[in-house]
Design a protein that fits this description.
The protein is α/β, with parallel strands linked by helices and 128 residues long. It is built from four helices and five strands; from the N terminus they run ββαβαβαβα. The radius of gyration is 14 Å and the shape is globular. It starts with a strand and ends in a 16-residue tail after the last helix.
């Protein structure tokens, strides 16, 4: 299941269901809808809880869909478990104009998005 949370200046998306192409394709559209409705341009997608991996052709199709749906409108950092990133989706999307990075490191994802930290500060309330 994907959960989306508005963190003020970016959207935080956690994907925790087992991998399926339909899951990631619907998540791409869900992210675009949330960002459009909430006027957000930066997204942090966390795939570390997702079990399984897309095959190479699925990764290519995901990259094409990212380009088609997000284009250059959104700046997106994807965090995944070590051993799951092969750059196919990222390269496919970036080579077609998308603003996307895939990494294993949360801090480098936040730095790339130009976000100080996505952790809530004491006394800060979550916005859904």
């Amino acid at each position: 299941m994907s959960t989306c949370q508005n963190k003020g200046d970016y959207l935080c998306v956690d994907v925790s269901e087992p991998y399926s192409l339909d899951l990631l394709m619907s998540t791409i559209h869900e992210v675009a809808d949330h960002c459009r409705k909430e006027n957000l341009r930066k997204v942090l997608v966390d795939l570390r809880k997702m079990e399984g991996n897309p095959n190479i052709f699925d990764r290519y199709r995901i990259g094409i869909e990212i380009t088609r749906v997000w284009g250059a409108k959104l700046k997106v950092a994807v965090i995944a478990r070590p051993g799951t990133i092969n750059r196919m989706a990222e390269n496919t999307a970036v080579n077609r104009g998308a603003k996307l990075i895939a990494t294993f490191d949360e801090e480098s994802a936040l730095t790339w998005l130009e976000i100080k930290s996505h952790k809530e500060k004491p006394g800060e309330k979550s916005r859904a």
